Please model this.
Amino acid sequence: MDRFVHVMPVGMDSDRIVQTIKASGHPVHKAYLVLDKSDADAEKTAGKVEEILKPLIDISRVYVDKKDIYKTVTDILRVIRKEVNDNNVVIINSSDADRYLTVACYIAAHISGSKFYISLNKGKLQEVPVPPLKKINDEKVSIIKAIDDEGGEVDSINRLIDILEGKVEDQKKYMAQRARMSYHLNGLEEDGIVITKREGKNVRIILTELGKAYVVMFG
Model:
């Protein structure tokens, strides 16, 4: 039997959160309350939700800086990846979220493939279909993970090849690797996952905020 984990941004309406959990049509085995660390109203709301739900389910808080949208996305994705790795089904219920958290939750749903719900007309809960994510292959994932491991950027394609392949003495093999790396980097740049900056003879490769989110979910 599937175990359902609900990720719920917190605003000011504890009743809405509890009611929409029931309206989702899915059981709830665990819940994460996502709230801005400087929002006193959200703290009070989270406390009320916990009073109702803690006797019934495992519930945790995730504190974010909601105005840093992509940092919030990565914080949410860390939770989602943990639960997906445990073979749980994740549902994001954004019914009590403001615009910042709604955007962050929708991006997180898009990247992770989670179901996304929001309360629309007359408080009715509605699933918002999330477009399928453009998949990136394992080789591209290994590239962005290597960049992330280096602090989010590397100073040249040569350095990236060294990290992933080690030193290559054979010139013909090296040129083939460089051509393949350039091909993958072009694709990653077109998708907004990396940016490149020419510096003299070298090209600096920098992971974008979207790229960092991909690493959290897939790296």
